[in-house]
Structures are given as C-alpha cells and as structure tokens.
C-alpha cells in the first residue's frame, strides 16, 4: 500500500508539473502550445511542459537567452522570439532541436550570425532574422540547415556577404535580402543556392543586381 501511495503521489505531482503555466503566459493543448506574448519576463521560461511544441514569446522584454532553460524542450517545433531586445544568441542556444521547423527572431538587436548557432537542426524550414542589426554572417553559418526553404535577412545592416555564407543551402527556395546596405554582390555567393526560386534585393544600393543570371530566379525591384 505504501508503494501504491507513493506512485499515486508521483503521478499527481508529475501531472501538476505538466499542467503548470507560468504567470504571464497562456497555455493550450495541455501545455504543448504556450504563448507568453507581451509578458514582462526577465528570464527564459523553464517550468513549462517538457513536451512543449509551440512557444511564442513576442514582445516579452527578453534581453538574455538561457541555453540551459530552452534545452528542456526537445520536442519544440515552433519558436517565436520576435520584438524583444535580444542582442546576442548564445552559441549553443538552438543546437540539437531535431524537430524544430520554424524560428522567428525578427525585430531584435542581433548583430552577428556566427558559425556555431544553427547546428543539428535537420527539420528547420523557416528562419526569420529580419529587422535586426546584423552586420556580419560568418562562413558556413547555415551549413547544416539542409531542410531550410525560407530565409529572411531583410532590414539589417549588411554591407557584404561572404562567398561561403550560404554554403549548404541547396534546398533554399526563398531568400529576402531587401532593406540592407549592399552596393555590390559576388555571383559566387549564390552558387550553392541551386533550388532558389525567389530572391528580393529591393531597397539596397546594388548596381549589378540585374546582371545576375540565376536559373528560375525572380529579382524583385533591384
């Protein structure tokens, strides 16, 4: 009887943990879909359902990201960190989330995309880094994103892109580079983008944009 009572207590406590919803957040689908939009959070939430699939933290006043806290949510498929005050992405923040399909980081203060940010993300299809302050994208930054189909880098401070920045993105179909500071682009930068069907270069300072001869590529308002 004692063991049975302990088992019942364990199950009860476990269910309470799974059903816990952090103050400032709204939880759906037994805590697998959590929205903490406009919450005044000082840290990344870490007491949510570990089976969490969708997490939205739009305009949650986040400045620092905690790799240890997010590592609990290995089932995560959708992450929205838009409209925060994030200046830096920890090197291991998004490493190893095998089921993650979409990440939104637009309208933050990120300046650098290093080559150790997006590792072991075999399912990632959509990545939005628009409206940041990105000045540099390191070589091979997206190398392991084999499933990526849409990459948005619009409205940043990019003046140039390394010829190896887009290495590995043969499956990319949409690329948005509008609203940056490009004056010229190297043709070899886009050599590996064999699946590209659409690219926007509007509102840059490019003089040679119309000279690019990409197969199936539509240049919008060069």
From TrEMBL:
Domain of life: Eukaryota
Transmembrane domains' residue ranges: none
One of the record's GO cellular component terms: plasma membrane
InterPro entries: KCNMA1_auxiliary (IPR051432), Leu-rich_rpt (IPR001611), Leu-rich_rpt_typical-subtyp (IPR003591), LRR_dom_sf (IPR032675)
Pfam families listed in its UniProt record: LRR_1, LRR_8
Annotated signal peptide: 1-19
Annotated keywords: Cell membrane, Disulfide bond, Ion channel, Ion transport, Leucine-rich repeat, Membrane, Repeat, Signal, Transmembrane, Transmembrane helix, Transport
Full protein name: Uncharacterized protein
């Amino acid at each position: 009887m004692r063991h049975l009572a302990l088992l019942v207590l364990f199950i009860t406590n476990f269910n309470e943990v799974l059903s816990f919803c952090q103050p400032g957040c709204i939880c759906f689908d037994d805590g697998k879909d959590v929205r903490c939009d406009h919450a005044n959070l000082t840290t990344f939430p870490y007491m949510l359902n570990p089976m969490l699939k969708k997490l939205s933290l739009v305009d949650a006043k986040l400045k620092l990201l905690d790799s240890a806290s997010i590592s609990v949510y290995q089932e995560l498929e959708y992450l929205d960190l838009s409209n925060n005050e994030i200046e830096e992405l920890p090197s291991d923040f998004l490493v190893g989330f095998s089921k993650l399909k979409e990440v939104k980081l637009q309208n933050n203060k990120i300046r650098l995309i290093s080559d150790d940010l997006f590792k072991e993300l075999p399912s990632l299809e959509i990545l939005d880094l628009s409206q940041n302050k990105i000045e540099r994208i390191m070589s091979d930054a997206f190398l392991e994103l084999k499933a990526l189909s849409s990459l948005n880098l619009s409205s940043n401070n990019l003046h140039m892109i390394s010829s190896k920045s887009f290495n590995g993105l043969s499956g990319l179909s949409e690329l948005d580079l509008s609203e940056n500071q490009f004056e010229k682009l190297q043709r070899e930068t886009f050599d590996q983008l064999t699946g590209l069907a659409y690219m926007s270069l509007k509102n840059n300072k490019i003089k040679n944009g119309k000279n690019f001869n990409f197969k199936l590529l539509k240049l919008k308002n060069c």
